[in-house]
Amino acid sequence: AGDSRAKVYDFEVIGVEVLPDDVIDDEWEGRVHCRTLLRHGQRHHFVLNSEQMDAAAAAYGQSETQRKVTRLEKERQRRYHFLNATAARPPAPPLTPTEREVKWEESRRWLRDLDADPSAFYGSGGFVVGQGYIPKAAALAYGRVVAEASKLFEGAPGSDTYTDGVKLFCLRDALIFAPVQEGLPYGAEIKRRCLLFLDGGLQELYDTVLVRRTARQPQTYSAADCEQLLRDEVAKRRKGGDVRGMVDVLERSL
């Protein structure tokens, strides 16, 4: 058995000895000349036969596979700790099928009461959707959200049930991908919203995470502000030597 404390060195092949075509030797095992790869210090030269070379290649392949597994495991642990950080909001307690059906019935009634008129439904400019990409932690849950929302497309177009489906279709991504509060893990928060959606918590999402666009109000200026803007514009034209521009500014102010 080998010593587990033995040092391991990477090496490169610098030459291979082969027999001439007219020489036959059944006991010939081949000779591979190798050299260790060291950044510092003296390199060592050594010779391996074909069997030893095969064993070295197999050992290298096994160690490379182990390194990949180790990197993958570290990445999984990093993601786990990230998605389960203490800053994440705790998910809602699981519901029984009966409780979930009751919640969905309440959500359908709430959805029916929403004004279907686009100007009222979208408010001033519509809804804000944040980054909009689906994190791996929430990919499965979001797929179930899409499937659950599509169930509301019932009846003929124009009917109340079909209109409810259209409303939920327009609200779905606004409820799930609304901007995430700073400090919360993005993946964990999106997954929490998906689970709440699947439990029928549409109104809770609407009241707590939905963000509407705000229309920009026209800026108003006082008389003093207008006078200062005029002075600044004239000074800018004068500094650039634009006499005609100064005259135009003064004429527009009259």
UniProtKB/TrEMBL annotation:
The organism's place on the tree of life at top rank: Eukaryota
Protein name (Swiss-Prot/TrEMBL): Uncharacterized protein
Organism: Octactis speculum
